[in-house]
Structures are given as structure tokens and as C-alpha cells.
Amino acid sequence: MKTNQIIDEKSQFRAVVPLKGATIETKDGKTVGKCGDFLFDDENWTIRYIVANTGGFFSRNEVLMSPFVFKNPEFGNYHQSMQTVLSEDWIESSPPLEAHSPVSRKYELELARHFGYPLYWTGTYLWGGNPHPMPGMLDPNEPARHEEKMAEIGESRLRSCDEVVGYEVISNGESIGKVDDFIVETHPWRIRYLVVRTGNWMFGKRVILSPEWVADISWEENEITMTGPDREQIESAPAFDPSDGVNRDYEGRLYDYYGRRYYW
Questions:
Q1: With a threshold of 0.85, does the pTM exceed it?
Q2: Which CATH architecture has domain 16-159?
């Protein structure tokens, strides 16, 4: 199977799974680790953190890094890199991530204090006071401006992309396949589509469905329930080929097929 790291250069849609293993670089281009996972919030379906594995071969040290600290990703056929605006010391002195424990809002605030980026859960936009992350917009005083609102805000709603890959997708009471990947629009870092492999994993085709069509997620049962289309309609939907990717023409045909209003 062909895999295309750059799904569509103009619209900046990226598949998440092929990005695992991309190198994480300092502002000077020094490699400090690799991308291990992505954490998204299940309310806005937006990637909030990249999990960077910065340890060596025999050690494991995970650091959460917000899209605010990354320059535009560069992906090619033979090399994938995600360059930060940070120094090596800045990354290495990041608050340690407790393994296998939920990421708390308190820990997120500690990260924001360390790196100096705005809090995404305050303000009216997808990224708090911003419609999208502004790479390099780091101000040590920024998080403190919103700390008084912490008591009014609930706990984090972060989920691992690694965990959700393989979840059963249900529509109209029938299983239509399993989550195979995610398609992210990199400017706002929003998950635009779930890639679902229908039928048998070897012979089923891939289709993409918008998270906006999700009715419910059962984290206990590892299931995602969609609204509307039945199994036959989904199986007959325009196929998704990772080597062709996503563009506006494909999106238009997809939304027309399902009779949904364009998000753009």
C-alpha cells in the first residue's frame, strides 16, 4: 500500500499515523526525540499535544508539546521532521509527564507556564484567544492572566490517537468498520476526518467520516457511534486512497453524497 505523508500540500491535510516517528528538532535543527503519539480533546476534536519521546534507546522520557511551539511541519518521502521554536534546554527542563496517568488540567497549566503559550480552554476561539496556534507566540506571563478562571473550568478531555485507532465504528446499530487513521488540518490542528476501514481488514476499503457526525463515544466499549448513514450507504461512499489524499473537490463529493452542509 502506498502512503503519502503530504496528503494535500495546498490545503494542508495530513494523516496522523504516518507522522509517528517523525523527528522532533530544536530551533537550531538538533534532533531531541521523535513523535510518539498525538493527544486530542474529544469536545472540539483538536490535536492539543504532540507526545515527544526524548529518551534514549534504553530509557523513555515523554514530553508533551503544544502546537504553539512548532514551526510548520516539513514532510517528505524519506524524512519527516517537526521543528520547534525551542532550545534543547527548554525542552529538557519541561515538567515530566507521569506515565500511564490522565493528563490533568493542573499539569496542562504547569506546561503552559513553562513554555509561555496561551491556554486553549480560555477565550472564544478554538485555541482560546486565537483561531489557530501562533508558533513562537510565547510569553511567560500569558498563562497567569487566566489562572483565576481555573476554578470555573472542568478537567481535561484529552484522548490518545493511538488508543482510538482500532475503535469499532457503529452507525444505525450496525458495525461498519474500525478507525484506521485521522486526517488533520494542520493550520488549526483540527481533526477533520476519521479514516474508517470497512469490512474485512484485508479486503475492506477505506472511507472518511467527519467527527461532526459522531453521536457518541464509548471509551469503555471502544466504540464510536455515528449519526445518520447506514452501513450500505457508508460502504458505497467515495473511497479514500491515502496516496490520493484529500482536497476540496473530494470533500465536496463526500459532503454531497451524504447530504451534509459544507463546513467551509
A1: yes
A2: Roll (2.30)
